[in-house]
Each structure stands twice: as C-alpha cells, then as structure tokens.
Design a protein that fits this description.
It is built from three helices and 13 strands. By secondary structure, it is α+β, with helices and mostly antiparallel strands. It folds into two domains: 115 residues, no CATH class; 69 residues, no CATH class. A five-stranded antiparallel beta sheet has the order 4-3-6-7-8. Helix 2 runs antiparallel to helix 3. The longest helix has 72 residues.
C-alpha cells in the first residue's frame, strides 16, 4: 500500500492506494494532529489540519490486495508554506517511528476477520504503553487514547502524560469490569425474580381452582341437603347427585 495526498493551504486530503489503481478504505488508528475522522473510524480519505509550521503523524491501517492487514505511520511535515504528507514526500510508508527520544510501533492483527483492531505501542525506558488490552502485563500498560500515543511520538506530550493516561485507563478498565460483574449479577437476579413471579402465578391459579371446586361442592351439598329434608330416602337422582359431588372433589 502507498499513501497519496493533495494539500491545499493548511490542510491535506490523504488516501491510500493498493498499487493497482484501487483506493481501498482504511482505518485511522491514531493521529497527533486534528483530522476529519475519529480514531478507529474507517474512511476512504482523511483530511488533516496540522498547525502551520508544525508537523505531526497519522497512523493508518488497511487490508492489502491479498486480504492481509497493512499499516503505516505517515509523517506530516512543512516545507516552507508547503504541506507534505509521507516520508520526504515520496509516499513510502513505515510502521515504526523512531526519533532521538521516542520509539513507537504500529501493529496489525494476524487475522483479517475484523475481530481484532490495529494498535500502537510506545517504549518509555523499560516500560511499554499499548492501546491493545490483550497485551497488558507487568511491564506493558494500557493507554486507550491512541491520539495521545501519537502525540508522544511527535514530542507533543511528555512521558508523564502517557503514564497518567495509563493510570486512568487502568481505572476505567477496573470500573468497566466491576460494572460488567454488577450487570451480570442483576441479570441473574432478574431471572430469579422472573421465575418467582411465574411460580406465584402458578400457585395463584391453583388457589383459584381450589376455590372454584369448593364453591361447586358447596352448591351440590346444599342441593342434596334440601332434597334429604323433603324425603327419608335417596332417589336415584339423589344418589347420582351425591356421586357427582364426590367425583368433583
């Protein structure tokens, strides 16, 4: 993949070519300068608005013509009043960023099924800071703000800003995990309440059936008692009535 750009005034429109005349869409992984898209958004072209006289960098990724991920950290520089996008203006792309004081790398997933997203990592001393939560360990810390990581690489923010962002990301992740646990507990409790409500409804139906049967039995018993008061013996009709009342109960 290669980058192409058209600049006008203090802005530039950036796109990606596949080498065969195609213009595939790409993902903005992060940027140190204002852009027309949000980090993580997929676009076919991107407008960048760097401060005049001040360069920067955008990190992008897309699928190549073989269906695999490709990525690049694209430098943005000024040549007098002319805005240039790409390494020395020749359009070559690299996924590593090196300067005298900053080291960073743009990674892409091995899979192209969309289940993973490209991420950025920077090295500060013996510690790493990454935007990929699956990479977190004892010496690699999560920073979800990819734009901040890009700004660190272009020396627009210092190491303290990255460390503070890592603390905030860790707190947000802990809060998110706790919130997920609470939501799971609430879902379990809601299911329990639903089952209890269904059981209460079933028992209420049983009581209603019992009351109906008692009422029917009482009516039959009263009718039979009246007949017995009028006669000293049971007719066939009375016997049938008594038999029906027993069957009902």
């Amino acid at each position: 993949m290669y980058v192409f750009a058209k600049s006008s005034g203090g802005a530039a429109v950036v796109g990606v070519g596949d080498g065969q005349g195609g213009r595939p869409s790409f993902v903005l992984v992060g940027s140190s300068v204002p852009t027309s898209a949000f980090a993580g958004e997929r676009v076919r072209q991107l407008t960048v608005y760097p401060e005049k006289g001040k360069g920067g960098m955008v990190a992008i990724a897309c699928y190549d013509r073989n269906g695999a991920w490709d990525c690049a950290m694209v430098p943005i520089v000024w040549d007098a009043d002319k805005l240039i996008v790409g390494e020395m203006g020749n359009g070559l792309l690299h996924n590593s960023f090196f300067s005298p004081n900053r080291i960073g790398h743009l990674y892409v997933p091995y899979r192209s099924d969309g289940r993973e997203a490209p991420w950025i990592e920077v090295q500060i001393g013996d510690q790493r800071y990454t935007s990929n939560p699956d990479r977190v360990n004892g010496t690699t810390h999560l920073v979800t703000d990819t734009n901040l990581l890009c700004k660190y690489l272009t020396e627009d923010v210092d190491a303290n800003a990255v460390a503070e962002a890592a603390i905030k990301s860790a707190a947000d992740r802990t809060l998110s995990e706790r919130l997920g646990a609470v939501q799971s507990l609430l879902a379990t409790q809601n299911e329990t309440l639903r089952r209890l409500a269904a059981e209460c409804q079933r028992l209420q139906g049983m009581y209603e059936d019992r009351d109906r049967l008692v009422t029917e039995w009482g009516s039959l018993a009263k009718g039979l008692a009246k007949r017995l008061q009028r006669r000293w013996f049971l007719s066939e009709e009375d016997q049938k009535l008594l038999s029906d009342s027993r069957l009902t109960l």
